[in-house]
Structures are given as C-alpha cells and as structure tokens.
Amino acid sequence: MFFILLQVWGGLFYLLNKLFFSMAERSSGIKIQQKARVYAWIVYLAGLPAWVFVFIMEHNWIAAAVESSGVPAMIMGLYYALKEGREKSNNKVLDYLSRFMIAFGLGLSLYDFGGLTTINQLVELGVALGFIFGTYFLAKFNSQGYFWFMLGNISAALLMMRQGYYVLMSQQLFSLILVLDAYFVRKRKEADKSSGQLQVDIDA
C-alpha cells in the first residue's frame, strides 16, 4: 500500500507539472501563461520527495542524486515565473551543484554495484541527463528543455517498468505526450514569430 501511495504521489504531481507546462504553451493570455508556469513549478517541487524516495529504495543513486540537485533549478523557474521575467543569470552555483551531484550519484552507484555493470545504471544516466538539463533549460525559458524532458521521460518509464513501478511508468508515458505537445506548440509559435518578423523586414 505504501509503495502504491508513493507512486500516486510522485506520478500525479509530475504529471500535473507537464500538464501545466502544456497549458502555458497553448495559452495566448500572458496572465494565464504565468499562472500555469507557477503551478507547474509548485507541483514539480511537491512531487520530488516521492521520486527521490523511490529511487533511493531501489538504489538508483544516480537518479536520486540528480533529482535532488534539481531543486535549485525548480526554485529558479518558480522565481522567474512569479516575476514574469527572463533575467539573465550565470547560475554558477547551480551548474557546480548539478555537476557535483551527478558525480556523487555516479560514484555511489559504481560503489554499490561494483562498477557500471547493470542496464539500470545506463537508464539512470538517461533519467539524470533528461531531468537536470530539462529543468535547467525550462527554468531559463528555453524550449530545449522539452527535448531533454523527452529523454528523461522515456528513460524513467523504462526504469520504472524494469523495477515494477507500473503506475509511475504509465505516468511517465502520459507525461511524454504532454511534453511533446508543449514542445511542438512552442516551436510553432517560434516559427510563426520568425516568419512574421521576416515579413515585417521585407515590407520595410
């Protein structure tokens, strides 16, 4: 029962995160976009403890360490969403923290398994890369974040399937659909904006 509750907790909040991101991309109103992004980061933070707990129970040290290191990026994304700004920041602290946590998680995994010996460890690397780069880029309003989330969703779904967490596996697959939707909507908007700017330049 406890494991089911963990899956529902983590899966529901992470699914809501992707749903709110998709809503933000599809909305034409600035205020609605802002609220959707704020909610997206809040539910992301709310769902994180459950995922970290699951990863630790399964000795998925790489994923657990990197998931934990994403907290600063989530807070940064929430702050930017609340401010409606796109302030530039070098984020050196975040960059160094993320690299340290990846190295730390990899070290724990190598120690626990006696080297890079399992398929799960390779899948964890996909989860880690997708999560940390996806969170970082989206916190900076960069659409590349969706691409990395796709990698993370696919890797996490595979990892959860291999370890018998089918609720979380299903959540990751549903999330992948929402991430794809958000990504293509953003790209279409960027293409329309570029073509509109080009038309203005030609007319001028």
Q: Given the C-alpha coordinates, what overall shape results?
A: globular
| Termini separation | 66 Å
What characterizes the major β-sheet?
Answer: none
- Which residues form runs of ≥5 with pLDDT under 50? none
Q: H/E series, N to C?
A: HHHHHHHH
Q: What is the beta-strand fraction? A: under 5%
How many strand elements? Answer: 0
Number of helices: 8
Which value, in Å, is the CA radius of gyration? 18 Å
Helix vs. strand class: mainly alpha
Total individual domains: 1
Write down the overall mean pLDDT: 81
Topology:
Blueprint: H1 2-26, H2 30-57, H3 61-69, H4 71-83, H5 92-113, H6 119-139, H7 144-162, H8 166-203
Helix pairs in contact: 1-2, 1-8, 2-3, 2-4, 3-5, 3-6, 4-6, 6-7, 7-8
Describe the structure.
With 204 residues, the chain is mostly helical. It has one domain. The protein contains eight helices and no strands. Helix 7 runs antiparallel to helix 8. It is globular and about 55 Å long. The relative contact order is 0.13. The model has no long low-confidence stretch (mean pLDDT 81).
Quick recap of the structure?
With 204 residues, this protein is mostly helical. The protein is 86% helix and 0% strand. It has helices at residues 2-26, 30-57, 61-69, 71-83, 92-113, 119-139, 144-162, 166-203.
List keywords for this structure.
8 helices; 204 residues; single chain; 86% helix; mainly alpha
